[in-house]
């Protein structure tokens, strides 16, 4: 999720040793055959040794000048549960609603993983200003942790050892929202104030009633030219990979719910002891699905329609149900999608043109069936940190989408019009 420098020279890989050993040419100088042949063999051996040293020196020089490991910098949006974005004011990150022309003030968050810490806890280093100003935790005058921005290149910190912990946060995910816990100050989390236009801060988990600890964290749909230009100004000897949303395959964000779903249905790959009883058939997972305009799904005239669901008609909302498709690549998160608790499945059709429809077939039946039967009902789900997209497995390049107008049927569209959805587990 970088280039690898060769670890050994070609000579060493072939097992060559010093002349006169089995690793050199398979035979040493002959002891019989006269002094002339002995001296000739010694000259050959000396020449071979000299050539061997020259070759090793040349390869060693090449290794020393091999490019450093690639650093991938990700560009995301970070905003709190009250839909307040981050912007800079008086050298502090502040959370507030940015309307109209002020929307241009929003600071995008650039991050890299810190692989020196526990990978399972998703450690990340956060920054703004194209990765040139990093978020750091430190002790304040009263002894409590506080935040500040420090001018440091984010690409240097993963190689900084223990000192990078002050810049690192452990991510945790639940129901589409993320929390960020300081690696240097366990139990302290990034937070915003209930009042608008207050600085981003740190608080303890027990302060959840007086602060907002939950954030949306989403891959940016595109990286600006300025961001790309700034990030390409790399120090000599470093290689940089910039990852932003352009509907290309990017380094995936782990969706813990999907890990659990696939483990429930397909196992973790570990061998089962034959004496352990087989667990009962797992059941579909159920989710409330909303687009970024908070439109939900309801059933009208046999079709799924996206609409704004107010208090009066909230009971009409149709949750979706999902199970894995066991025939397709697990790493792409192939899901068979349906409604009504998994008794009706969403199909893209089997004709030359896609056509979304609901069919009276159970998700568990499709899960147990063959590949050809299940594929029209399957969607590859991509997780961007807070939102999800669903690409039709039978029609690559087409994604589930909602129309711009209200009360329009759910459809399929290519990437520019593809809809990002929020999922909340029921």
Describe this protein's structure.
The protein has 426 residues and is of the alpha+beta class. Among the domains are: 80-214, Trefoil (Acidic Fibroblast Growth Factor, subunit A); 256-270 and 281-425, Trefoil (Acidic Fibroblast Growth Factor, subunit A) (Trefoil). The protein is built from six helices and 27 strands. The strands form six sheets. Strands 1, 4, 5, 6, 7, 8, 9, 13 and 14 form a nine-stranded mixed sheet that branches. Strands 15, 18, 19, 20, 21, 22, 23 and 27 form an eight-stranded antiparallel sheet that branches. A hairpin with a 2-residue loop joins strand 16 (295-300) and strand 17. The protein is globular and about 65 Å long. Mean pLDDT is 78; it is low at 1-36, 49-69, 234-252 and 270-276.
Short description:
The protein is of the alpha+beta class and 426 residues long. It has six helices and 27 strands. Among the domains are: 80-214, Trefoil (Acidic Fibroblast Growth Factor, subunit A), CATH 2.80.10; 256-270 and 281-425, Trefoil (Acidic Fibroblast Growth Factor, subunit A).
């Amino acid at each position: 999720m970088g280039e690898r420098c060769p670890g050994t020279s070609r000579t060493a890989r072939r097992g060559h040793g010093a002349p006169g050993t089995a690793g050199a040419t398979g035979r040493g100088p002959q002891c019989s055959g006269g002094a002339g042949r002995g001296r000739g063999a010694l000259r050959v051996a000396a020449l071979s040794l000299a050539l061997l040293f020259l070759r090793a020196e040349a390869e060693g020089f090449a290794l020393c000048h091999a490019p450093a490991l690639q650093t991938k910098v990700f560009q995301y949006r970070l905003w709190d549960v009250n839909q307040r974005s981050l912007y800079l004011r008086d050298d502090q990150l502040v959370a507030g609603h940015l309307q109209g022309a002020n929307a241009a003030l929003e600071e995008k968050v650039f991050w890299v993983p810190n692989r020196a810490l526990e990978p399972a806890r998703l450690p990340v280093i956060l920054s703004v200003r194209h990765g040139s100003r990093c978020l750091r935790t430190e002790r304040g005058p009263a002894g409590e942790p506080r935040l500040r921005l420090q001018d440091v290149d984010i690409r240097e910190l993963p190689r900084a050892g223990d000192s990078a912990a002050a810049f690192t946060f452990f991510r945790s995910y639940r129901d589409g929202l993320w929390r960020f816990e300081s690696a240097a100050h366990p139990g302290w989390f990034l937070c915003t104030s209930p009042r608008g236009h207050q600085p981003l801060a740190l608080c303890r988990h027990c302060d959840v009633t007086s602060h907002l600890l939950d954030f949306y964290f989403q891959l940016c749909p595109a990286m600006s030219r300025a961001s790309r230009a700034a990030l390409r100004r790399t120090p000599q000897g470093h290689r940089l990979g910039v990852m932003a949303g352009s509907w290309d395959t990017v380094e995936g964000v782990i969706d813990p719910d999907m890990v659990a779903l696939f483990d429930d249905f397909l196992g973790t790959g570990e061998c089962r002891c034959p004496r352990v009883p087989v667990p009962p058939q797992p059941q579909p997972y159920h989710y409330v699905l909303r687009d970024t305009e908070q439109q939900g799904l309801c059933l009208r005239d046999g079709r799924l329609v996206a609409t704004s669901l107010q208090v009066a008609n909230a009971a009409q909302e149709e949750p979706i149900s999902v199970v894995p498709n066991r025939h397709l690549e697990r790493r792409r998160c192939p899901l068979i999608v349906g409604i009504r608790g998994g008794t009706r499945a969403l199909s893209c059709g089997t004709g030359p043109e896609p056509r979304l429809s609901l069919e009276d077939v159970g998700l568990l039946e499709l899960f147990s069936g063959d590949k050809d039967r299940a594929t029209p009902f399957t969607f590859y789900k991509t997780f961007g940190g807070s939102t999800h997209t669903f690409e039709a497995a039978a029609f690559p390049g087409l994604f589930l989408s909602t129309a711009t107008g209200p009360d329009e049927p759910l459809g399929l569209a290519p990437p520019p019009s593809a809809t990002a959805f929020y999922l909340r587990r029921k």
